[in-house]
Amino acid sequence: MPRVVRRTFVLGTVPVALAALLGAAAPPSAGTAGVGDPYFPLAGNGGYHVHHYDLTLRYDPSSKHLAGKAVLTARATQSLNRFNLDLNGLKITGLKVGRDTADFSRRGQELTVTPRKALHRGQWFRVTVTYQGTPAPVTDPDGSLDGWIPTDDGAFVAGEPQGAMTWFPANNHPKDKASYDFTITVPDGRTAVANGVLLGQRSEHGRTTFRWRQSEPMAAYLATATIGKFKVTQSTTRDGIRIYNAVDPREAAKADPVVKQLPSVLAWESKLFGPYPFKAAGSIVDRAPNVGYALETQTRPVYDRAPDLSTLVHESAHQWFGDSVSLTSWKDIWLNEGFATYAEWLYGEQHGGDSAQKTFDALYARPATDDLWEFPPGDPGSGANIFGTPVYARGAMALHKLRTAVGDRTFFRILRAWTAEHRDGHGTTAQFVALAERESGKDLDGLFRTWVYGQGKPSTP
Ligand code: TRP
Ligand code: ZN
């Protein structure tokens, strides 16, 4: 199929620009193979938005075999003669657009779908992909693993930044958020934990099926379907948030006293950051020694081992900063990590630990050659740096500078305005700066230029 179509189908020889002027449909063209993220050029896809994912999965931990069916409900944002999804590995056994079988081809993570009939701009459509195989994690630019990571009793499933595509076909970029339904079948005795609310669980023929619903929009990387032998506890907080905890019994002695504090941590964070943005919450504590990090999977963070309280505070803070308010570009990652780290400092300060100022001072005392000053948090330079020390620690330092510049009342008003105005949506650094200036009535350009974008160690603390 030709990539460049010079004439519209409708108007024959009339040039495209004139056709557009006359309100005629543009000729259908291919959606892009990425959303334009400079650090992950193939992540996500252009030309459509996914509104809902309905994922039906069956996993056998002993053979590590996954069988899946993904039904995506999407809407074209341009007329499309083909479009891409991201899917890494696995074998596709069927693919339909609407009721029609569609042609597809695969190259690396790009799954290119050619529907039988071109889609017009604004058209709702459904894509059904059936697939199977042995999912494997992807290796990130920084060498860490993400995606579907098998464990000795199931799988640890965490997709930041790229791993969602290792277990379902997705528009794999935080720019495109959707609601999710999960139906996951595992052998009896194993538990499958996803995001949101547990709708039901039922055992038949030696297998148990868990149904989960994530109704608030979610970025693909925040989806989980972690499977293992877990001890489950459920409760409801005073604010009506449904808590579901799944803890690997081998981690329970260390994890339980921490996980138990989730309701009080969420209540404390709600006072500072605004109302908790989701209906459900909880913790998944797995034993996944080869992972080396926790992830703020939406509503229910997943931990590779028993977390300490500070880590629980961090992942919980991400529910506001990163999950409810999402990135539009991985370059802005400090909006997630700087904020979640600053939440840890604030928690310490208000619970008998060091003041945030003391934490800031100790960091500022590090020599100019320290890793902390290697690159600016607002411009990490590449995907290999998005989880580097400057993003976390110097990102938090930038927020502390903001707090001392505007005062506590204004600072927390800024945070609450941010989470309220961008709830279930997105935010950029430029929008945060504009909001901080509006709420404080101060020119904060210099502050952000130095602390978020400046190269090297700032000359004054
Ligand atoms: N976002 C996670 C956190 O800070 C960390 C994380 C996710 C991570 N994926 C990673 C860290 C890959 C290093 C490598 O809570
Ligand atoms: Zn984090």
TrEMBL record:
<dbReference type="Pfam" id="PF01433">
    <property type="entry name" value="Peptidase_M1"/>
</dbReference>
<dbReference type="GO" id="GO:0016285">
    <property type="term" value="F:alanyl aminopeptidase activity"/>
</dbReference>
<feature type="domain" description="Peptidase M1 membrane alanine aminopeptidase">
    <location>
        <begin position="309"/>
        <end position="451"/>
    </location>
</feature>
<dbReference type="InterPro" id="IPR006311">
    <property type="entry name" value="TAT_signal"/>
</dbReference>
<dbReference type="GO" id="GO:0008270">
    <property type="term" value="F:zinc ion binding"/>
</dbReference>
<protein>
    <recommendedName>
        <fullName>Aminopeptidase N</fullName>
        <ecNumber>3.4.11.2</ecNumber>
    </recommendedName>
</protein>
<dbReference type="InterPro" id="IPR014782">
    <property type="entry name" value="Peptidase_M1_dom"/>
</dbReference>
<keyword id="KW-0862">Zinc</keyword>
<keyword id="KW-0645">Protease</keyword>
<keyword id="KW-0732">Signal</keyword>
<keyword id="KW-0482">Metalloprotease</keyword>
<keyword id="KW-0378">Hydrolase</keyword>
<keyword id="KW-0479">Metal-binding</keyword>
<dbReference type="InterPro" id="IPR050344">
    <property type="entry name" value="Peptidase_M1_aminopeptidases"/>
</dbReference>
<feature type="signal peptide">
    <location>
        <begin position="1"/>
        <end position="19"/>
    </location>
</feature>
<dbReference type="GO" id="GO:0008237">
    <property type="term" value="F:metallopeptidase activity"/>
</dbReference>
<dbReference type="InterPro" id="IPR001930">
    <property type="entry name" value="Peptidase_M1"/>
</dbReference>
<dbReference type="InterPro" id="IPR042097">
    <property type="entry name" value="Aminopeptidase_N-like_N_sf"/>
</dbReference>
<dbReference type="GO" id="GO:0006508">
    <property type="term" value="P:proteolysis"/>
</dbReference>
<dbReference type="InterPro" id="IPR027268">
    <property type="entry name" value="Peptidase_M4/M1_CTD_sf"/>
</dbReference>
<comment type="similarity">
    <text>Belongs to the peptidase M1 family.</text>
</comment>
<dbReference type="Pfam" id="PF17900">
    <property type="entry name" value="Peptidase_M1_N"/>
</dbReference>
<feature type="domain" description="Aminopeptidase N-like N-terminal">
    <location>
        <begin position="51"/>
        <end position="222"/>
    </location>
</feature>
<dbReference type="InterPro" id="IPR045357">
    <property type="entry name" value="Aminopeptidase_N-like_N"/>
</dbReference>
